[in-house]
Amino acid sequence: MSDLLPVHLVANRVSFPLNEAVHSWLVPLLDSYYEADKGICEAINRQLSRGRELACAKGCSSCCKTHKDIPVYPVELVGMTWYVTEKVTGEKRSRLKEQLANHNNIDGCPFLLAGECSIHPLRPLACRHFNVFDKQCAEGEDAYHTRRQDVLTPIKKYKEKALLITLPFYGDYKKSEQKKLVETGAINKLARPLKDCHWESLPEKMTTFDDRQ
Question: What is the CB neighbour count within 10 angstroms for residue 183?
Fold first, then answer.
């Protein structure tokens, strides 16, 4: 979900230089998110130029609470796990540990803390692509179903390229195979609902990391 930004949005690549030198999967993941963000900014700018207003803003978390089937790809799971384990700090880290341990008893996204995304730089493609215009979602509303015309439609070429960039993580595919996997939607079979992931094991990984510091 995008923050409320100036009239012309410009995407910036999230960067962790030291970590990117160590983790081979991190560079293509961040490149993928950058490609997606460029497309999202372009699509939003088109709507802003037509007089529409982006309703999504920091602190608006209706979709984080109501969407039960947010799809997450395997490389994104690796990225989210890494970010939570090594990058979340302070009080947020303590609160997130507790929340993840009990995520099966929590409605909505387990990474939502006090109305804000605790993994915002590494949030999944599905979250990045979901943007709503003109009016913030009502409590419990899924705007995709109640007012589809107000939900951003991602630009296809950016969305597909973002997925293509991540394909080496899953295997050594020929270019023709890569294109087919993305264009037919076959790659989507790799994704799983965020809520179905075993996040309850993540606090232990966080503690192990802390003990090594």
Answer: 13
Task: Report the b/e string of 131-146 with b at 16+ CB within 10 A.
Answer: bbbeeebeeebbbeee
Beta carbons within 10 angstroms of residue 25's beta carbon: 16
Q: Are 36 and 143 in contact (CB under 8 A)?
A: no
The full set of domain ranges for the chain reads 17-212
Residue showing tokens 């990391």: 209
Q: Chunked in runs of 10, what are the mean pLDDT values of the chain (213 residues)?
A: 61 97 97 98 96 90 87 98 98 96 88 94 97 93 94 97 96 91 95 94 96 92
Cα Rg of the chain, angstroms: 17
133 - beta bridge partners?
54
- The pTM (predicted TM-score) of the whole model is 0.92
The β-bridge partners of 192 are 72
Annotate 62-74 with b (16+ C-beta within 10 A) or e (fewer): bbbbbbeebbbbe
pLDDT at 1: 47
